[in-house]
Amino acid sequence: MISNVILDILVVRDFRHYWTIGFLTSTARWFEIMAFSVLSWELTGDASIAGWMFAFRMISLGITGVIFAMLGHLFSGVIVMVATQLLVGVSCLLPIFISFTFIDYDVLTVLYVISIFSGVLWSVDFSYRRRLLGDTLPSKIVGSGVSLDVLSSHATRLLGMVFGGLILSIGDENLIFLFLAGIYILSTFLYFGKKDPSPFKQGVTGFSTLFKKVIEHAFKNIPVLTVLALTPIFNVFVLPFFTLISLLFLEKFRTNELEAGLFSSLEAIGALVGGVLISIFYPKKKVMTFCTMLFILLISVLFTSLCEIKYLIVIFIFFTGFASSCYSALQSSIIYAFTEPNLRSATLSVLTVSIGTGFLGAVNVAWLGVNLSIDQILMVMSIEGIACGLIFLILVWSRAKYLKKAIL
After folding, report:
1. Helix axis angle, 222-237 relative to 286-306, nearest 10°?
2. pTM for the whole thing?
């Protein structure tokens, strides 16, 4: 039955193209996050640089999300995606061209610029490519198609980490930029001949209006409120962890780049396992499972920071990937299931923008990295996340009790 659904999805030519684009660019994204973190650390010996780089990526993601929440209906999704991917691809080619002229340049500045543009691409990928992908399928299998796209994005974390470790071990930074440029530019060819089926609308939708409607609805709907309240906890206190996994092995155990990449990829294997299991054994108590997975993530990060045994850390990293996959799958499904149909798009837009709060976590890492080692950063970050998560849950629980009394 499951295989029949997958075949029904993959037989759609445009879906295959949009899915392939997402698979390739997501692989490049995780390769980039891993490679840029390691490269900046090797150049400076300062983990805070990797934190600031991730902060700029998330700031650009959030700003782009706000802009396209207001203006997105004015543009063709295909044109936006092609233009953004070419922008990132060209930015990756520039340092190669400069190196051929034998002009010295600041590698860190180039990494910052590419990270900013990549954050823009990450944002429009949520807003446009995934919608374009869903538009290619009949309504009865749209959910399965989007789930397949989400699941494959977890697989790219594995490929990105492995490729990152492999190319870093060669020792030529130009190969990093060439690999990225090749993926971003060549994958745009799959957009040729495509059109955005969504009609264009005139006028600008105020983000404040969207935000107000979503929040008013959320305060009357506990599942939605729970997701919106806890999403920043993941973005601030867990998401930066994925940029630090390789650095943890390099700093704590003095591994080489390839070994660090291979160990880091086990997080992605855990994500794949979690994605498959959550699809097969979908929980009835979605909100409770969502909260549980978030705290498993935070506890796994804490144990990773405290452990001194390399292969035990690998196990904790595997469970981090497992829990992150379940968390992300439940996040979107709760919003879709419990949000009024006319507010789903607005709520998902606000949810996408909230991913940009990850810049606060990156700033936190950069600030902590000035005086602390990688494992100490992870310990402080996870304790902060557990404390903030408990506070948010208490506030949501209080709101739930109030609504129950109001109804009675």
Report:
1. 20
2. 0.75
